[in-house]
Amino acid sequence: MQIKQSQFDLIKAQLKHLTTIDGFYKKNLDGIDIGAIQTQSDFEKLPFTWKGDLREAYPLGLQAVPDEEIVRIHSSSGTTGTPVIIPYTKQDVDDWSLLFARCYETAGVTPLDRVQITPGYGLWTAGIGFQAGAERLGAMVIPMGPGNTDKQLRMMQDMKSTVLCATSSYALLLAEEIARRDIGQNIHLKKGIIGSERWGEKMRRRIAAELGVKLYDIYGLTEVYGPGIGISCDYECGMHYWDDYVYFEIVDPKTGKPVPDGQIGELVITTLKKQGAPLIRYRTHDLTRFLPGDCPCGSPYPRIDTILGRTDDMIKVKGVNIFPSQIEELLKEVPGASSEYQVMIDHLNGKDILTLFVEKETGADKAQLVNEIGFLFKTKIGITAAIKPVELGDLPRSEKKSTRIFDNRY
């Protein structure tokens, strides 16, 4: 993707500022003549930033403005290792709410909508981001936060919520509960804005059908504002991202070199206007690709594909690299197989054993599923798996992100 002059001017201004103040980037870019960066190729020679750098900078080593300008901090949702702390200025918070409001507008949300927010609040960016964007737009916010499904459904009915904001896992849990309680006639939802984790097409269709809503993928990460830097539109052909605030590159995960437009690679993000903790060439580990051409919706903003997986999602079994997206694509082809699955990998008697638990739809034949899924797993992924169909609803549901792969070998 060709860099715009307006983006390049903002990047050079960021680099000039960051190399004149004590902090991470002054050290990371030491010895590099910032004034000599005159082309996109020059910029692409700068070192990457990655999450390890952000952890080493704990707590506030990334801060690029004086303390009196910081109004808030957020932290990534990861549960292991040193937390990543991201400081925000008032301008950062205002910009983020503007970007999030754009997402709602792209999804067709208006001030007449009632937006029920189920992601978590606190240090995590999700809940407060969804709320700030909806308020900026002028919609009514119902700030539920996670959990308490009984109360979620009570408020959804009584407040006549029209927009649900959730992870795909929790949206599925709510959809199943609505069906189980037979209260669909009391639900007024029209749209679902889903973020935080990747999800397959089969899961998307199921949630959309059971909730009776149009679904939109929203994208973001704590290190770069939070959710709200990109979203899908009505045409469901990738996600528009706000290139006046973020510059995207897609690189080969192994070499770090740019890949041709349309080819899958790792998304790298540079913030253009962020003040509290700007990021230069940040490796997200998210796998996607640029989508060339104009979108039928008419938006002037460029598009990337929906996130196809993560470079660190990969598991290696019997010498074969396996991504969750491959399993989701495989299950999409199998009638009678639900979207919900779980993988268990064990090492027994000197051998790796992969067991795939799959929820079967009502009336589906277990033996047929075992044969069909087992055949596809062997032919498409390349190894033999033990296929274990279970009843619909047997696998755990999550209010946050679902864990689908359990590697018990280590």
UniProtKB/TrEMBL annotation:
Biological pathway: Aromatic compound metabolism; phenylacetate degradation
Keywords: Ligase, Nucleotide-binding, Phosphopantetheine, Phosphoprotein
Domain AMP-dependent synthetase/ligase residue range list: 63-270
Pfam families, sorted: AMP-binding (PF00501), AMP-binding_C_2 (PF14535)
The keyword Hydrolase is assigned to this record: no
GO molecular function, one term: phenylacetate-CoA ligase activity
Superkingdom assignment: Bacteria
One GO process term, biological-process aspect: phenylacetate catabolic process
AMP-dependent ligase C-terminal domain residues: 319-409
Gene3D superfamilies named among the record's database cross-references: 3.30.300.30, N-terminal domain of ligase-like
Class in the EC hierarchy, top level: ligase
InterPro entries: Adenylate-forming_Reductase, AMP-bd_C_sf, AMP-dep_Lig_C, AMP-dep_synth/lig_dom, ANL_N_sf, PA_CoA_ligase
Enzyme nomenclature, EC number: 6.2.1.30
Subunit relationships: Monomer.
PANTHER family: ENZYME, PUTATIVE (JCVI)-RELATED (PTHR43439:SF2), PHENYLACETATE-COENZYME A LIGASE (PTHR43439)
Assigned protein family: Belongs to the phenylacetyl-CoA ligase family.
UniProt protein name: Phenylacetate-coenzyme A ligase
Source organism per UniProt: Caproiciproducens galactitolivorans
Gene responsible for this protein: paaK
